[in-house]
Structures are given as structure tokens and as C-alpha cells.
Amino acid sequence: MALETAILEAAARWYVDLRCDDADNATREAHLRWLESAPGHRQAWERLIRLQERFDRIGPGMAEPTLKSARIKRREALKVLSLLLAAGGAGTLAWRNTALPSLIADEHTMTGESKSLSLEDGSQVRLNTATAVNIHFGPSLRELQLLNGEILVETARDSLARPFVVHTQEGSIRALGTRFIVRRLDARTQVCVLEQAVEVRSAILTPTVRVEAGQQMWFNQDRMGNVQAASPDADAWTRGMLVVNNWRLEDLILELQRYRPGHLGCQAQIAELRISGVFQLRDIDTILENLSSTLPVRIRRLSRYWTRVESV
């Protein structure tokens, strides 16, 4: 029997409540009453426990950070646990290989969240939606490791003259006193330089490429893309906006998917429709409704977490 999302979310809330320091007998008794009130409640709870047991077998370092996050960031942990429940048994390996490293990264954001950081040298880093980054400042290097997502970096002058380098699985970007964006999605890294320049080096390929202000390029483990002119609105997401100019509708939907939990798709028949505009990322559902009033499309929703843009 498929479990409703509301039941899975409720199980996640109980999981967090029972592990918080203020959990008391009244909380535990209320949890027992919830378990007995419907068959689906016990099924959801058993799924959660099975998943936690799997993480325990993976190793003590995998499950414990989730519990720590639950104590420190209660609302964030609820989102994480709800996703863990929805993943089910088959999703455990995928979480081990992708999401869990992100959750235990030095800094991360959930879907739809952004965050600004001030590093110890005075450099500023802005994390976009669903982003995870590790930070390491050593005696000879200032390093960030972008696991996934998107960051804007504004480097500060370092008293020790240590180079500032951003690493991804595909390679590294060395700042040359600069302000730049690094985006890693689908095993591909994209670099956009807003001020001064960076040097891009592939993890495998030989050449080092210099990218100047107003330019961008992408690279993966097999290929270095060409240096091209960057959009003047590449950093609009730091202001909560998305600026598009003659985009394919499918590309717009794929970009909006990054900011909205669940599935957001586009029917193939309308993928090539073109659109331009400025969109407020804080309300993706409003953007979708506006699409239906400006293009020959309709919005089909099967649940809170499944939406598709279709032809009328």
C-alpha cells in the first residue's frame, strides 16, 4: 500500500520530537496513540525505523549527523527525514552516495533555501538552493569543495597571500582576486566571472583556461567547453529572481525545479515554446499559474509534490 505524504511527514515529526531533549512521557504516550489510530501510521513508522537501521549498518558516521541536525535545526531536519521516508528502501543507496554527504557538509541549504556566509579571511559566500559545500583553510591554501548546487564567491585579500580555490568533482577554479559563481549540477561544473578573473583546471584534462569578467564556461571530466559571454543577470538568484531571455519552456521548468520540492515536469509537445521575463523565485506556484495565462499551457497537479506543465 502506498503511503500518503502527510502520513510520512507526520512520522518524521514524531521521529524528531522523540529525539529532542524536551521529549517527555506525554510525548511518548501521544506517539503511541498516533501509532494505533490508523494502520498507515504504524507502516510509516516501521519504514522510518528500517531506514535508520540501514544507516546504522552503513556506519556510525552516517546516521548520527542527521540526529544532531534534528536537535539543532528542527524544521530543516523535518524536511530531511520526510525525504528519507519518501525514498523508501530502494532509495537508501542513492542517499548514501548523494544526499547524505551533502547533509553532513560544513554548510548546506535545502531546496528553496539560500544562505550567506562570512569566512574567516573576510571572503563572502552565498549558497543557492540545494547546495552543499565544505570549507578548509590551511597554512598554504583557502579551499572550498562544492559538492552540488551553486555558490557566489567574493574573495577578500588574504594576509598570508594564500590562493583561494573552489574544487568540484570535475576540476578546480582558482580565484584571481575576484567575484564569481560556480554551479555544479548533473556531473558538470559551470563558472561565471562577475569581476576580474579565474583560472579553470580540469581534474583530468591538461589545459588551464582563464575566464575574465563577463565570461563563463562549463566543463566536465571529458570536455572543457568554450569560453562565452555571460548573462548580465547571472547573479539575479542572489536577489531572489530569475531573469530569462527567449528561453525554451522546458529549460525554464528545469531551472524552476531546483527551487521547488518534488517533481516538476514539462510535456514534450510544448518544450520548444519560448519565454522571456523576470520571475520571483520565492513563489514557484505563482510563476506556473502565470505561465498558463501567457502561453497555451495548463498546470496539472496530482499531489503537492507532482506537477507538470502540459498543452491545453
Write down the CATH class of the largest domain.
Mainly Beta
Number of strands: 16
**What is the 3D form?**
globular
Instruction: Give the termini distance in whole angstroms.
Output: 33 Å
- Stretches with pLDDT under 50, minimum 5 residues: 56-73, 89-98
Give me some keywords for this one.
312 residues; 8 helices; three-stranded mixed beta sheet; FecR domain-containing protein; Ferrdict_sens_TM; Phage tail protein beta-alpha-beta fold; FecR; 3 domains; FecR_N; Jelly Rolls; 34% helix; alpha+beta
Explain the overall architecture.
This is FecR domain-containing protein. Pfam families: DUF4880 (PF16220), FecR (PF04773). It comes from Pseudomonas coleopterorum. Residues 9-48 form the FecR N-terminal domain. The structure is a single chain. The protein is of the alpha+beta class. The protein folds into 3 domains: 5-104, no CATH class; 115-229, Jelly Rolls, CATH 2.60.120; 240-311, Phage tail protein beta-alpha-beta fold (3-Layer(bab) Sandwich), CATH 3.55.50. Helices cover 34% and strands 35% of the residues. It has 8 helices and 16 strands. The strands form 3 sheets. Strands 1, 2, 3, 4, 5, 6, 7, 8, 9, 10 and 11 form an 11-stranded mixed sheet that branches. It has a 3-stranded mixed sheet with strand order 13-16-15, covered by helices on one side. A hairpin with a 2-residue loop joins strand 6 and strand 7 (171-185). Helix 1 packs across helix 3 (39-58), helix 3 crosses helix 4 and helix 4 crosses helix 5 (74-87). It is globular and about 65 Å long. The two termini are 33 Å apart.
